[in-house]
Specification:
single chain, mainly alpha, 4 helices, 0% strand
């Protein structure tokens, strides 16, 4: 699906602002652009700030995954990570009080 014009502009501005921040070290540039956008279009400001947050979150997630891969933790297939823990016979046993449904046991 194609991005709307709003999302396209907000994404481009977010990319430019984050690149400027990385190159200049000026951490206030992202906020300054957000304030400027908000003065004329709150909708564009919100979309821009969301785009910035998404890109920052993506960068943090990718950095974590790269770090784990460097340590050898990412060598397992996520699809094969299904729960292999045995069922808990006490917790999964039907309860007479509840009409045969699972019984909750406090531990």
């Amino acid at each position: 699906m194609a991005d709307s014009y709003l999302e396209k502009v907000a994404g481009e501005l977010a990319d430019l602002a984050l690149a400027d921040q990385a190159a200049s070290g000026d951490i206030a540039i992202v906020d300054q652009i957000g304030e400027m956008l908000g003065a004329s279009s709150q909708t564009l400001q919100e979309s821009y700030l969301t785009a910035v947050r998404v890109r920052r979150a993506e960068a943090r997630a990718r950095a974590l995954l790269a770090e784990r891969a460097a340590r050898g933790y990412a060598k397992t297939d996520p699809a094969s990570k299904a729960s292999t823990a045995p069922a808990d016979p006490v917790q999964d046993a039907p309860s007479e009080e509840s009409g045969g449904g699972p019984r909750r046991v406090k531990r």
